[in-house]
Sequence to fold (688 residues):
Amino acid sequence: MDINTLIEVALIIVKVIFVSLILFTLPIPLTWIERKVAGHIQVRLGPFRVGPHGILQPVADMIKLMFKEDIAPEKADKWLFRFAPLFAMIPAFAVYAAIPFGDKITIPIINKEVTLYISDMNVGILYILAVGGISVYGIILGGWASNSKYALLGGIRSSAQMISYEIALTFSCIGVVMTSNSLSLLDIVKFQSGTILGFIPNWNIIYQPIGFVIFFIAALAEINRIPFDLPEDEGSLAAGYHVEYSAMKFSFFMLTEYVAMVTASVLAVILFFGGWDAPLFMPEIPIFWFVAKVGFFIYLFMWIRFTLPRYRYDQLMSIGWKILLPLSLLNILITGLFLL
Amino acid sequence: MSIFKKIFFIDFIKGLSLTLGYEVSKSVTMRYPDEEKWAPYQRFRGLHTLNRDAQGRELCVACELCAKACPTKCITVVPMEDDKGIGISDRIAKVYEINLVRCMFCGLCEDACPTTAIRMGRDYELACFSLDCAAADKKRLLAPREIPQEFEGGYVVMARLERNKEGINIKPDLTRKKRWW
Amino acid sequence: MEQIFFYIFAIATVASAIAVISLRNPVHSAISLMVCFLQVAALFILLRSPFLAAVQVFIYVGAVVVLFLFAVMVLDLGKERFGEYLHHQRPIALVVVIGFVFVMGFTILHGSLDAQLGNYTEKALVKNTEIMGKLLFTKYVFPFEVVSLLLLIALIGAIVLAMKEKR
Fold:
């Protein structure tokens, strides 16, 4: 091993640590933003007492979650109950191994070029969809291991929902893969650079509007956000799969949910909105545009959460199988015809 | 038309724009203990006050009409002779105590009073940690209030939350009014 | 380096495969199956076939085992329902297994299990997905179509079985 490989390996380790640290701390601002958005949409203020404008509220919540008693039901499957939150969390984090946040930047002082992704897999999009799909095990197993009616129902709902919508989600991505001719996310983003007619950004949303709509709806269902959050339906299932969870295990589930939301936003940006490509002659700043677009999508998810009511379970299934799936197949067909 | 609506998610966008409108609108939350406080109207029936006249003499003549009028019999009045000019006549209340646990704030005592000595005030923060404060004695009733009688009321004023050993006190700043909602 | 990884994954595969059939609780079996599939995916990566690995994770881990779990939970197969259903099959099974192990061991030791190396270099295998797609739709188009037809028939069969007769 020569010195260059060592530096590369060290760089990868640093990147991994950096990304996971960001992901671990991400729920802290996100919970605050979500509660603020909820508050203002409901014409109230949201958290206000801990720190200025309640900005320290998530820190207080975190301290509370850390020191709460960790309760496991007596008849629970002890091992699975303990490992289910990890089953949910690890895939949600592993997804970020393949996500590019930007192309390359040069660190000024040591004058070294650093790529803004952990690895550029040639099957990136497939990897993300596959590994992201494993996350559902945490929900199913957590629901089953709790040995509680509501948790079990939440787990079962989650598994059926996830299988129904994963197909539509993948098929909607196939359209993008067909237009940009690659499975690698880096290539997909590079394909979207430039403009049409001189001013419209050359993003996939222009070519794949149906694909984007299907992707967005299916992603909402995949990450269990509100119109489709039936696995944790407060109205009919108490809290769904995490009824029996408390303290840190519960916070792992929360963490997974927020990370999944960020993943869905990141995927939407990379696949349909040109990744870090700056819109409308705006100056190209590394990472900034990417973060701005992802932030918009995260806000959109929250916005939708406090706008729409929850679907019924049979409605959820019929949307998935009778509308989204045929539409996504049609989208592939149309894309194919255009490419010919 | 309805198929057009479905394809372009018209209803969905309408819903989103509605919530966005609420999001940017002013919130109705009154930041009560921290920064704001509701100053009630003059007709509000809160903790009673015993009033004084312009010379600072007690208006109460201990006629006990309030105690008689009280439906819950929560007012205790013990009269005594006095010639030092504390009251407006030579008869003042030696003991004037209202049992706030029994009082239902109906305001009949106020109606019965011939000298307008007892009035329903505007203090509503009556919670405390022990039963001591459940009985309001003469000293407490005579003490000047943070919201004076003449104050018009009916809006939110800025306030300051004060913590001390006795508990929490929310001090209103009556000069800084704020229209609520 | 690769050898070490191969042995780690291989041992994990075999161990989890044994766990699938020996664990009494159907949910635990399903989880072992999932672990087994994941290890197989890892082996695919060692074989320079990330596409197959991703598909393996995607289809088997992400969908098939989830469906297994779904069925197990909905049907509530408890431990007691999963009892002994082997009716004097043990001696026969034993003979078959021993015969299989013998044949396998013999062929491996004899060296006749070596597959011929393909004509792709490691560099060409970066475009692994493209190569596979092209091969599927040119050289192997007939088996591909047969398999898809088979799956379609199975799909229709499942629907027919599940559909109740209308009066």
